[in-house]
Predict the 3D structure of the following.
Amino acid sequence: MPKPGAASRRPAAEAAPTLPELQVIPAAREAAVERADETVDLLLDAGRAPGQILVLTTDTVHPWQQHEQSFGEDRYWSQLDAADDVFYAAADGCRPVRREVVVLAVNGGDTATVQDAMATALARATSLLVVCGDAPLPAPRRPEQ
């Protein structure tokens, strides 16, 4: 016979995940990538390892992503797996990976696209999510009729 209350206890491995710290840096869409780059520089200056940082964009890909993809998709994605440098990707096309810090550049896209990118960024960040730009709050859900 099990002890009373034993069934309600969850093992430590099943504990609810903690949410990362959230920082918002206001920026117009056309300046969001620049703010994200400045944020990465500050994170590196503060002692974060480059491989701990993932930069996501909501619309046009980051110029560094364009540069890295010019060498081929295999080489580009191998850098994600290596995790030894800052990795740049589109929020809607990044492979599932978690990093200590995610910097989201809200550089375009409609409300639904940005909300999806926010959810992706939140799922990827383990300790800090920095949002550069204007990120709309989720729309209130309407009751189903």
Q: What stands out?
A: The beta strands are 21-25, 53-57, 87-90, 99-105, 125-132. The longest helix spans residues 32-45. The chain has a mean pLDDT of 87.
